[in-house]
Every structure is written in C-alpha cells, then in structure tokens.
Amino acid sequence: MSLSQSTTETASGMVTKAAAPVTVSLATVAGYQVSDIILWTTLFYTVLMIGHKLYVIYKDVMGKQ
What is the pTM assigned to this prediction? Predict the structure, then answer.
C-alpha cells in the first residue's frame, strides 16, 4: 500500500479499537486496578473457551451415533 492511498475506517471499526482502552480507563477511574480487570477478563475468556470446546466435543460425539 502506497502512502498516497487512503483507507476509510468504519464507525464500528473505530468503536472496536477504542473499546478496550476506554473500558480500562473507566474501570480505573471507578477504583478497580488494571491487574484485577485483566485477571477477571482472562478468567471469563477461559471459561468461554472451555464451554465452546465442550460444546464442539458434544456435537462431535452426538453426531457420530
């Protein structure tokens, strides 16, 4: 991509990029530490991934019977 080319960014793209920093900033102002936010977010993400994997395994096992 050359410097003369310009890219247009959609509103949803800008909101997505700004969501994480804004959330951390607001939580910090509310009195939560960044380490606590990261800890709980990681826990939530891990539980979601385990649930998704269990669902995929369940579909695979039930589909073969």
Answer: 0.58
Residue 39 lies in a domain: yes
Domain that holds residue 22: 11-63
Alpha carbon distance 45, 35 (integer Å): 15
Torsion angle, alpha carbons of 43, 47, 52, 53, to 10: 100
What region does 31 belong to: left with phi over 0, alpha with psi -120 to 50, or beta? left
Segment 13-52, tens digit of pLDDT: 888 888 888 888 888 899 989 899 889 989 999 999 999 9
* Farthest CA pair distance, the chain: 58
Q: Cα 7 to the chain's mean position, in Å?
A: 24
